[in-house]
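[SOLVED] Need 3D model of a three-part complex

Original post:
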Amino acid sequence: MEVDDLALVEKARSGDADAFRTLVVRYQRKVFAVALGIVKDPDLAWDVAQDAFVRVHQHLADFKGESAFSTWLFRIATHISIDAIRKERSSKKDDIDQVDEAALSEGASGILGTALGSNPQESVLRKELVEKMTAALAELPPAHRTILVLREVEGLSYEELSEQLGIPKGTVMSRLFHARKKMQALLQGYAGLSARPGRSTGREDAEP
Amino acid sequence: MTSLAQSAVVALGLVASAPVLSADAGIPARIRVLKGSRQGPPGVPPGLRDLEHQLSHTAYVRWEEARVLETTMEFKKPVMVSLPDGWQVVVTLLESRKDTATYEVLVPSTRTQSRLTIPKDKRIVQQVTPERGGDAYFVTIRPWP
Amino acid sequence: MKDCATYAPMIGARPGELTPDEEARLHEHLAGCDACQGRLADLEATGGMLVEALSRAASRRDFATFADEVMARIPANAWKPEGAPKGVLESLKAFFGRHRVLAIASALAPALAAAALYLFIDRPGMPAETALPGVEVASETLEPIVLDTSDGPIILMSDSDGT
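Solution:
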């Protein structure tokens, strides 16, 4: 796929519209998915995704092939997505990067893991939670949404995240920790699971 | 159709309708693509003299006739008009009353739609490209030329 | 455990992202920490769900017009003539079928398109603000200006920078 992309980029660069269109169709859904994760609103994500391709086209001459085309495309899409939500402010004041006692004391301790069972892929609960996932993502502050999307959808490494977000590796890790903790807590809430011992809500009691 | 107009039709690669057999089948029209420039010696070529007064109201002083199409347009059948820059404009005859004809003009490169009703003795001139380097392209439609 | 503050964020690292020393210490910590084992279990159980959720959302959406719209936003002079978009009529019709673009039959929707500015010239007696019947123009990218002359209207399209 990657070699194929480069061939299309070359053709597009020299004025072949169908080659560029092929690239658009190839990546449109994934770019939309990345944008959706960061900007939340589907219509905005649609526009952002289109903007990304238009901007890619404008800068085709600059693409040197040092990275994969898709990497470059997603990087542009991410920038545009982050710009689009720049005005969004987190309503909570909690520090998004600090890992301290308070951060450690709450949150999941294997509850979801237990509830999803030994074969999580098959579980009905998993299907339900996937449906709720986009809503849960939307409830996270922008910085957490962004880092989760970059990590899990784009698959960026700690090093790439550090470079793209302009934060040290340690902060990357602690921000991911916070983001996942929040996400897990939201999913627990959706699943009707409680973190506190002794409260059974009818589902598997997570406490031994 | 003159042979010049015929070769223009062929050169444009248009989806143009066949000559009309009955009066209800369509309306003859002359569609022209014009280029207006802010620079250059002011003037209007002989082929555009009929538009001279109209065009004088714009800021473009020098005019060229880039394409001419004479065709009978059938109702609801789109006609694609190629512009010199490669884009196409889609003109469709929608309806006609006694002495007026209504056209739809689509300009995808600027995401523009228009619905234009033209009386028999008038002409519509519509800009179809944004101005670049002081130049812009226009399309003009005249029913029953 | 105070150590959790150090090791909990390491959970979820991929091969090569931790130094060998960090990996060794993480394993050691996990061996003795139920809370962190629980965090690891949760992470493994929910892994991939985010991708799945967003991919589902992307699959549900109709992308039929997406590429056409992208192509329509790229200036035509970017393409060589022989490399120009094909199937123009089909893609145009798909493009203009989108409900977000003004439907021809309905009134101008100010939120979607710049309403045409009507200027009357050469027509004595017509008030400036009256829209000319029979001329409706809407554009998502440019501002239409209609000059009505005695020979007929001229529709100019203005860029937002005023040209």
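Edit: The CA atoms of residues 29 and 143 of chain B lie 4 Å apart.
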